[in-house]
Amino acid sequence: MADKIKLKYSFGKTINAGNFESFRVDVGAEWFCENNKADVDRTFAAMKKFVDGKVREGELECQV
């Protein structure tokens, strides 16, 4: 059996609110997966989709 490895992915975005104000949204994730290319690729794609979606949610909340 292959060893488990930990993948990390984070993404952030600064939103200009005008009038010299801004908001920063940062989201990160750490997930374990099997140490093989297929599982790493699948896990990374899932992490990226999750994290990027949460940043978009935060961005939309800042614009309200």
Query: How many helices does DSSP assign?
Result: 1
Count of discrete domains: 1
Oligomeric state, counting identical vs distinct chains: single chain
* Poorly predicted parts: none
The average pLDDT value, as a whole number, equals 91
Report strand order across the widest sheet: 1-2
Q: How large a portion of the residues is in β-strands, by DSSP E?
A: over 45%
Radius of gyration: 16 Å
Helix and strand element order:
EEH
Please describe what this structure looks like.
The structure is a single chain. With 64 residues, this protein is α+β, with helices and mostly antiparallel strands. The chain has one domain (4-63). It has one helix at residues 37-63, and strands at 4-18, 21-34. A two-stranded antiparallel ribbon has the order 1-2.
